[in-house]
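Much of what follows relies on a compact textual record of a protein's fold. An example makes this concrete, so a full record is given next.
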Amino acid sequence: MEKKHLFGMTLEELQAAAAETGLPKFAAKQMADWLYKKNVADIAAMTNISVRGREALAQSYDVGRVAPAAVLTSADGTRKMLYDYDGKAVETAYIPDGHDDRNTLCVSSQVGCKMACRFCMTGRQGFAANLTAGQILNQMASTEGWEDLSNMVFMGMGEPMDNVDETLKALQILTSPWGYAWSPRRITVSTIGIPAPLRRLLDESEVHVAISLHTPDPTRRAELMPAQKGFPIADTLALLARYDWTGQRRLTFEYTMFDGINDSAADADSLVKLLAPMRWCRVNIIAFNAIPDSDLRGCQRKKMEWFRDILNAKGLTATIRQSKGQDIDAACGMLSTKRNAQQ
């Protein structure tokens, strides 16, 4: 019989596991402490549970942690981890800031992706599977130096809102006192903006939200992001406008710049107009990491700075994301695509 994994379970699920194996209810809190605070990888290490209790638990359960199958380290300190989940390759990126001790982990929520964005290598893979909450969190727990992480972003492989149940479960474990007890202000979830699951994310969590926008022109967005046809950005903006963003929760729009596509002064003006009802938001300008066999080209740094300055001058806060890991397949999906090709 295949054992069930404790890692990735909520407190309620751990209570059910305790009851199933004859352990007292309070053993669930003990297990949560070992799993999410002490980071153990073996039930035998849960020493405040009786030997008999651990043996009974181990009959049906294991911790279920997985080490990276490969780790690539960039000259700038960025690390890309590759995981083998049931024969499927999944990527994670550890990104050190280097200036203020901010260390960010970029985690995946799916194997592949259904959204098929033209600029995304993961989108070319197609969709293979949703990751469980345990598989999402394993990307953090198995990262060397995970205790020093300052931030986590759900911006890796996959669309988190297409796997909203497991994403929300992972967020619950991350932010609950019995779990990792992170502040939700340390977490950002990136999405193309699927209204129904996005509403759940907004209602059931307090994490920051980043919307994958990339152009203010809906026709051009549909060319870059086919999901625009099913989930128009206008509907996403209408939903976002119903929420209060004047507190600590942050709303960001991601804007990857492509040469000759979304980098003109007219594009900047249209972007300001589109986001005018939400002037408290931010625009994060992103350099395009080239992918094979693509006709898309990135913009020069000077062009990105010029575009940023136009937005700032018109009252829309804009920054440029620092590119990292250029020497280790920086574009999301590159490493896993190579691994899949080798299998």
Summary: The chain is about 35% helix and 20% strand. The two ends are 28 Å apart (CA to CA). Residues 301-313 form the longest helix (13 residues).
